[in-house]
Amino acid sequence: MLRCIHLRPFRVSGPMSDLFSHNPAKSRYELDVDGLIAFADYQRSGHRLVIPHVEADPALRGTGAAGRLMVKVAEVARAEGMRITPLCSYAAAWLRRNDPELIA
């Protein structure tokens, strides 16, 4: 006799598909990773990009998604001639380790 087993959805490890975007309506940058979102809220102040909050979907934690998001945020800031004021402890730590010259 066959039994039906119901499984919860799960993520198979392997390459993830990242899509970075700017969401001006929510004042945030987003990284869509296979349908899950990591985001960095921002405020513009002169030539500064203030980052008060970075968050990743719980399923993305430990995958490096927030770091990949910050790489893109840093690229945007650099391309626009801005420096970053990180109010979020994650953003501050990431910038100190990876791109300290962008810190305002």
Mean pLDDT, all residues: 87
Order of helices and strands: EEEEHEH
Our count of domains comes out at 1
- By oligomeric state, this entry counts as single chain
Spatial gap, N to C terminus: 67 Å
Number of strands: 5
Structural class: alpha+beta
Cα Rg: 17 Å
Strands of the widest sheet, in order across it, are 1-2-3-4-5
CATH topology: Aminopeptidase
Name the helicity range. Answer: 10-25%
CATH architecture: 3-Layer(aba) Sandwich
Return the CATH class: Alpha Beta
Which regions have little confidence, pLDDT < 50, spanning 5+ residues?
A: 1-14
Largest sheet: 5 strands, mixed
Q: Outline, from the CA principal axes?
A: globular
Can you walk me through this structure?
The protein has helices spanning 65-79, 89-98; strands at 18-23, 28-33, 36-45, 48-56, 83-86. It is of the alpha+beta class and 104 residues long. It has a single domain, classed as 3-Layer(aba) Sandwich (Aminopeptidase), CATH 3.40.630.30. Strands 1-2-3-4-5 form a 5-stranded mixed sheet, with helices on one face. Strand 2 (28-33) and strand 3 form a beta hairpin. The radius of gyration is 17 Å and the shape is globular. Mean pLDDT is 87; it is low at 1-14.
Observed structural traits:
104 residues; alpha+beta; Aminopeptidase; five-stranded mixed β-sheet; 2 helices; 34% strand; globular; disordered N terminus
